[in-house]
TrEMBL record:
It comes from Micractinium conductrix. This is Uncharacterized protein. It comes from the Eukaryota. InterPro entries: Chaperonin_RbcX_sf. Residues 128-157 are annotated as: Disordered.
Amino acid sequence: MGLLTDRATRTLEHEVTDTNNSDLGSWLSLYLQEHRIPKDGNWSDVSGENFLRTLLTRPVEEISGSFSDEEPLFAVASPVGGDPRGVAQRIMDYRHAIAKEWIEELRAVPEENKVLLSETLMGSLGASLNAADAEQKQQPQAAPDDTVDDAAGGSDD
């Protein structure tokens, strides 16, 4: 679960960076530096549960930003950029979507395993047959014998 939560968080971080939402991106990057999902420890930490709980219980923070470096008149303060509950909800939405994708991928594993085994076995069988053919071609073959052995008691009379 921690891997899933971490992947969802990284997806959100990438999205806000790509959409030039620098205020939210900066806030999220700082938050992720301070609140990592550990790989070792108790289950509630490792699973990402505490990470999400912390986000869900944090108060809304105002983030100041400006649409123009030249005009202080356009500087704004927006609680949307620093809404930890909203961020947690978006992470949980991504987590749900990623989990659904993984479930579909995991359902395909038995069939993929069969295909891999089949290809490997067919390849091995093909290699064995090719080796046998090559060995047979290397052995000298006797010329066909056109003579008939009449010593076996057969007569043409």
